[in-house]
Write a structure and sequence with these properties.
The chain is of the alpha+beta class and 136 residues long. It contains four helices and six strands, in the order E-E-H-H-E-H-E-E-E-H. The protein has a three-stranded antiparallel sheet with strand order 2-1-3. The chain has a three-stranded antiparallel sheet with strand order 5-4-6. The longest helix has 15 residues.
Length: 136
Amino acid sequence: MSMQPESLVKPFLPGSPGVYLFWSGKKPLYIGKAGNLKKRLAHYWLKNAGQKTNLLLHEATRLEIQKTNSEIEALILEANLIKQYQPKYNVLMRDDKNYFYIGITRETFPKIFMTHQPIKIQKSKFKSQNDPKQIA
């Protein structure tokens, strides 16, 4: 059984940060995070979504949403859930070799954020950390 776009009712999807889990039976297939769940999940049903996404949607039977208070909270929850369930379609964070980075922008009022991709924050200072519990 595959998930079709009509299986998601748009008012059901919040425009807030959180984590989403695609399930097949009692096993999660993929766990992801978003700053805006409604916008992020809409990308899964685009015509050019890609082979991996199409396979995921074909296997998935259910979508679960867990709202969070912030994107950082979503990042930490996502990491914990991936470590706990080790879903089939999550390739990042399966082992402890992937690090979190804390970025600080060089603005008058610096912003602090977390990422897995330090290349995107070249104009920022960053610190490597592999345990999200040590960051929060």
